[in-house]
Amino acid sequence: MISFEIKKQVVLIYLWLWWITSTNICVNATNDSLKPGDTLNSKSKLCSKQGKFCLQFSNNSIGSDFPCLFISVNVDYGTVVWMYDINHSIDFNTSVLLLDYSGVLKIESQNRKLPIIIYSSPQPTNNTMATILDTGNFVLQQLHPNGTKSILWQSFDYPTDVLIPMMKLGVNRKTGHKWSLVSDKFNLEWGPKEGELNIKKSGKVYWKSGKLKSNGLFENIPANVQNRYQYIIVSNKDEDSFTFEVKDGKFAQWELISKGRLVGDDGYIANADMCYGYSDGGCQKWEDIPTCREPGEVFQKKAGTPNVDNATTFEQDVTYSYSDCKIRCWRNCNCSAFQEYYDNGTGCVFHSWNSTQYVQVVADTFYNLVKPTKSAPNSHGT
Ligand SMILES: *[C@@H]1O[C@H](CO)[C@@H](O)[C@H](O)[C@H]1NC(C)=O
Ligand SMILES: *[C@@H]1O[C@H](CO)[C@@H](O)[C@H](O)[C@H]1NC(C)=O
Ligand SMILES: *[C@@H]1O[C@H](CO)[C@@H](O)[C@H](O)[C@H]1NC(C)=O
Ligand SMILES: *[C@@H]1O[C@H](CO)[C@@H](O)[C@H](O)[C@H]1NC(C)=O
Ligand SMILES: *[C@@H]1O[C@H](CO)[C@@H](O)[C@H](O)[C@H]1NC(C)=O
Ligand SMILES: *[C@@H]1O[C@H](CO)[C@@H](O)[C@H](O)[C@H]1NC(C)=O
Ligand SMILES: *[C@@H]1O[C@H](CO)[C@@H](O)[C@H](O)[C@H]1NC(C)=O
Ligand SMILES: *[C@@H]1O[C@H](CO)[C@@H](O)[C@H](O)[C@H]1NC(C)=O
Ligand SMILES: *[C@@H]1O[C@H](CO)[C@@H](O)[C@H](O)[C@H]1NC(C)=O
Ligand SMILES: *[C@@H]1O[C@H](CO)[C@@H](O)[C@H](O)[C@H]1NC(C)=O
């Protein structure tokens, strides 16, 4: 009787273990890799082993101009961490990502005669595998007969405007390949010599993070927005790089937005759009203060719109944005305030001191230059 009970229990435990392992197998049996000959079409997706990230085709709804291949965090409307190829238009319905038998990774679609080649190895290789990893990196590897693997291509080498844990900024010293974020005219780069992050606009340094202090924080980044990160800086013969990890192990991302701001999970890490050539807070000085300006003078955001009079000037160029208007107003001694010309934030209107004396109260904002007072608030970083 007792032994029968025990047998029954053992059988039940076996059944239970079988159920657990078999259901686990089902959960784990995600397709995270393409082998030679495998394809990924626009109706399927490739997800990492633990399902953290997925690679799929976008139907034009993720902020790119064209349908493209992208990697996102695997939840509905998950953060897009990588996109390819935003320069070429593909037809979403017929798009296929293909790893062929000679080691070429490419996108084919009905509207294109020639495929978009993501990677083509110098010598044809048959034993390759393309895998989406739980870090969000999509890697094409060569499997050698001796059991080792080498990376032929990886998405982490081609960041877009987002930096995620383990993705690097800096330079690969072996290949000379540089890792940086790009957003419109802005770049986020790692300067290994000074050991500082910097944001450039059209090649000119607007903002620098300052040095990494002994408390593990960068000088010019507010402590409350960088407390959760552990920075990893590598400098050796192979690479000079910067990356971060999140102390609590959760996912985090830094996004460089087209205005020139670097946005982290807890707020703005850098506001390069606030920089106009003379002040601090990470902003770089690139010219002397115009004679008509005083140190400490700052632009303050105000409600309303100043009168337009015969001294008001307009810049209708749509490539001008907030920071361009600010620099131009600062340099022009006739300018006392500025605002956007178009509703979408482009173009500039420059106002004289006189016209700021007649502010109409409308649902609008402008930026007014104010003289320093003893407790002058610094507009930077706000
Ligand atoms: C993985 O993908 C391959 C090729 O697309 C397919 O043949 C296979 O059935 C898939 N396996 C699973 C477990 O989905
Ligand atoms: C993709 O977008 C196009 C155009 O917006 C739409 O016609 C089509 O139904 C969409 N396809 C899917 C699978 O969502
Ligand atoms: C897209 O075009 C830009 C500018 O020509 C180039 O720098 C970039 O490498 C291209 N991206 C891809 C994925 O080909
Ligand atoms: C793509 O496929 C969707 C759904 O099958 C269809 O509604 C749509 O018209 C197709 N778009 C094109 C451009 O063929
Ligand atoms: C690739 O390798 C497999 C296995 O060794 C072989 O069966 C196949 O013919 C090879 N294909 C090509 C195109 O070389
Ligand atoms: C394995 O083979 C590859 C390619 O032939 C070679 O580069 C690598 O050094 C080998 N690794 C070991 C540990 O033998
Ligand atoms: C000052 O502004 C007012 C209102 O915009 C305008 O009527 C006046 O002509 C301006 N004065 C000068 C000297 O520009
Ligand atoms: C603008 O008009 C005022 C008043 O008519 C005049 O005094 C001033 O010189 C004018 N300014 C310019 C820049 O033409
Ligand atoms: C400033 O205003 C004066 C007088 O209206 C004008 O002559 C001068 O060209 C203006 N300067 C700039 C830089 O616009
Ligand atoms: C902003 O608006 C202007 C005028 O409507 C337009 O020409 C320009 O392309 C727009 N720029 C952006 C970035 O949307």
UniProtKB/TrEMBL annotation:
<keyword id="KW-1015">Disulfide bond</keyword>
<feature type="domain" description="Bulb-type lectin">
    <location>
        <begin position="31"/>
        <end position="153"/>
    </location>
</feature>
<keyword id="KW-0732">Signal</keyword>
<keyword id="KW-0325">Glycoprotein</keyword>
<dbReference type="InterPro" id="IPR036426">
    <property type="entry name" value="Bulb-type_lectin_dom_sf"/>
</dbReference>
<protein>
    <submittedName>
        <fullName>Serine/Threonine-kinase</fullName>
    </submittedName>
</protein>
<dbReference type="Pfam" id="PF01453">
    <property type="entry name" value="B_lectin"/>
</dbReference>
<dbReference type="InterPro" id="IPR003609">
    <property type="entry name" value="Pan_app"/>
</dbReference>
<dbReference type="Pfam" id="PF08276">
    <property type="entry name" value="PAN_2"/>
</dbReference>
<dbReference type="InterPro" id="IPR001480">
    <property type="entry name" value="Bulb-type_lectin_dom"/>
</dbReference>
<feature type="domain" description="Apple">
    <location>
        <begin position="292"/>
        <end position="374"/>
    </location>
</feature>
<feature type="signal peptide">
    <location>
        <begin position="1"/>
        <end position="29"/>
    </location>
</feature>
